[in-house]
Amino acid sequence: xxxxxxxxxxxxxxxxxxxxxxxxxxxxxxxxxxxxxxxxxxxxxxxxxxxxxxxxxxxxxxxxxxxxxxxxxxxxxxxxxxxxxxxxxxxxxxxxxxxxxxxxxxxxxxxxxxxxxxxxxxxxxxxxxxxxxxxxxxxxxxxxxxxxxxxxxxxxxxxxxxxxxxxxxxxxxxxxxxxxxxxxxxxxxxxxxxxxxxxxxxxxxxxxxxxxxxxxxxxxxxxxxxxxxxxxxxxxxxxxxxxxxxxxxxxxxxxxxxxxxxxxxxxxxxxxxxxxxxxxxxxxxxxxxxxxxxxxxxxxxxxxxxxxxxxxxxxxxxxxxxxxxxxxxxxxxxxxxxxxxxxxxxxxxxxxxxxxxxxxxxxxxxxxxxxxxxxxxxxxxxxxxxxxxxxxxxxxxxxxxxxxxxxxxxxxxxxxxxxxxxxxxxxxxxxxxxxxxxxxxxxxxxxxxxxxxxxxxxxxxxxxxxxxxxxxxxxxxxxxxxxxxxxxxxxxxxxxxxxxxxxxxxxxxxxxxxxxxxxxxxxxxxxxxxxxxxxxxxxxxxxxxxxxxxxxxxxxxxxxxxxxxxxxxxxxxxxxxxxxxxxxxxxxxxxxxxxxxxxxxxxxxxxxxxxxxxxxxxxxxxxxxxxxxxxxxxxxxxxxxxxxxxxxxxxxxxxxxxxxxxxxxxxxxxxxxxxxxxxxxxxxxxxxxxxxxxxxxxxxxxxxxxxxxxxxxxxxxxxxxxxxxxxxxxxxxxxxxxxxxxxxxxxxxxxxxxxxxx
Length: 758
Ligand code: GDG
Prior knowledge:
The protein has 758 residues and is α/β, with parallel strands linked by helices. The chain has 25 helices and 28 strands.
């Protein structure tokens, strides 16, 4: 067994925050160009590069990413060396990688699905293999350079598997991950073929950041519905770690925009634009060519405005900039054609010599022009169908700031889709549902007629927000919260008492040294994962082999101590040389022997409770009753996860009240509520097994739910008790999952066989 089985996360001794930072994103902040044997690179400004400039101090951080083009083998080494001077570490992708990992999965599966365009998802096995492979290469590159305890910050949807890969290889790393796009509702998310892998990949992080609370909430509910992992509002316990969640709406490069606006070139561009549009009011649209951006709906709303208000024809212009993007994808090329057709239609209907209602640019514009247009526009229309944040909305408010003067008749307003993350940080924008064309047109009318005082009040408050939440403070806050999360996670990890390698070695030494060992093992949730139906949890060959090997050692007595019906245990495990205790200790048998029972109890209550539970199972789909000689169990593991928990809590408290006078005990276990005859418990069985043992006997007891606490209470002080899964502090140690519990037992079985044991 390897270290990771036990030591998931607590090995770095250095305090968080004192390490180099490794930034990992699909693209490096430079674009490389190769021309025969020559190469050149252009630094990207704005975006992530600007956000991280403050935290990624020179020499104290490195950036791992794709340089943006295929680099011939002969140039890889010199390019790497050349980039290393700027703390950049390239991950080289082939043309096939670009096609499959980047276009295939990132852009044609994750991007559409996470923006709620499930019908555009095009999943392929080949694409998924490439996505995993490229994520692995990014992770390997990080592993090659990260010193112990390094902080690693992974960005975005291209690299969702990287946190998990890093965690598996290096529990010491402090891993943060930020998703720049929305996280969709679990109803959408669960259509993704690789849904488990992506969640598990992201859950490799110590700290996971989203733009809005909604996205974090959707992530939690996907973890619950897809992985069955329950969470708190700010954290998800996963495989013995605590993955913290944070909400960090990204901001814009305030400093960069201030500088651009102050430049003389920008001022002259602005003056020229003012002169050109002196007679007209400009409604501005700036977006990358993408179906998520809702440009088609925006054009319709503008068309509706001109239909309704002939007086505005000739007076307002929609200036729409569409930045070329992904044009090698036929869908994007088609989108471009569709938009151009719409633009042609509107211009044909309402244009005149000297007046073109929609002015359209299909290209990127220089920063001076961008800032000047933001400053000039009377309205900025940002109406995406879905958008993680949308920086254009914030940039517009920032550049309008100097128009705070009430007398300025041009102070612009922001019309913003409620489906952009930006709507949550700019609540004083005029929020619209972009699908509602009529109302969006109405809001445009309203904004064109709004008083200067109202425009100024709305604008100033939003500009102040944008200034305060700039991208530099976003990065600093993220890292500061990530440091806190690592500290908390480590404290939590210690409190979970997850069995560490050193402790495991002590347990092994005691086991090997003992001539008499008693192993008391619960079955469901301990040896075997909880399955959707109780029947599906039949023992695997691995489990049967494990129990056989443990029982083969004459020094061992192996007991399965379960709440299951005796017939099930006999059918599944009756042929093995082990003891079986069924029905929570009511029935038991020695290896290959007949069953013994406790004295019959007062069971008059059984029929009425059964009726009661039957009523509830008829009402709650996916629940069922299991009848045992002295108990009744209501199982809800197949019910809807949320609804099942809700009804179970209600049932539990009602039964406690109504059955208080009867000789019963009510136990809420793992997705089961059990009503059983009082005085029957696993503790009674364990007590009788341990009646005559002395302190030299090695006693190991493993369980996973509350019914197992009765066993722990009956143990002698030197016994080794182990809780499997999260959330119980009644045992000496814990192990995160049944798979790891089996690995632990396998190590015992194998150690018992080594010559040292003889
Ligand atoms: C993803 C998420 C999230 C645009 N045209 C020109 C130009 N731009 C600049 C804008 C702005 C940026 O590009 C676009 O940012 P967005 O936020 O609108 O959108 P995505 O690129 O889709 O980004 C998004 C973002 O990540 C950050 O987390 O907000 O939701 O999808 O800064 O100014 N810049 C120049 N010329 C142009 O023509 N110079």
